[in-house]
Amino acid sequence: MNYEKISYWLDLCPQISDKVEKAIEIARQDPHVTSITKIGADGTPTHKIDEYAENAAIEVLESTGKSLILISEEIGTIKIGSDESEIVLIMDPLDGTTNAMKNIPCYGISIAIAPLKNDTDLENITLDDITIAFVKNFPMNDTYMAVKGEYATKNGKAISVSNTERAKDSTLSTYLYRSKRNMDKIYSTVRRMRIMGAIAIEMCYVAEGIYDVFLDTEAVRVLDIVASQLIIKEAGGYIADIYSNELSSQIDLLEKTTIVATPNKKLQEDVIKLL
What we know:
The protein has seven helices and 15 strands. With 275 residues, the protein is α+β, with helices and mostly antiparallel strands.
């Protein structure tokens, strides 16, 4: 993807984000905003607030006149435009739905973009092909962006991971209720634990050195991490599954993986030893 195209899509991401954020505020006036309206394409319940967010994002994309493939949590995989698609845009229009409904200040949007040769090229796209990443935490007004091989930023300033190398010195986030593994060694070893309930945003905390570890030992959806994994990598971090394999998952709505996101391989190995 050349500089001109990267600039175009980077400029569009904040426009999508702004429209979604406004839609969420409008949604709060709907007395049925927390109701479940359907089961989304990803197999999880869709709340009405999710539909407000996704519809707002799609409206912006359709107004561009560009042809692309959109993969989004509720609607699934759709084609926008009539020409051959130039990109695939992977989106979670509302990361942290429960937080948004309860007005807990950690929820936002996640957007990742990879170039396509044509419509049929989608089956070849993996995490390694993601070129642009955008995550925004709406209540905090914090925007994280990354371009592959170039930079990772928060609110326009370069960010980098921490220098923590030992689990006993680390601040770790993990989803306790999902794990079927014995996590006692993890809990008793790490220095601190935090859980906010918005995966894309919490992984960005690893990218800027607030967290040292983001861990999911079961089955996190690739859709949830596709943008933030690039932000971590461009901030100097390291991402693997719990078997020490670097992540290279195919971009698919139902694809799942385990994840250990850390500042470096040394801390990643230390965490895996505790599992």
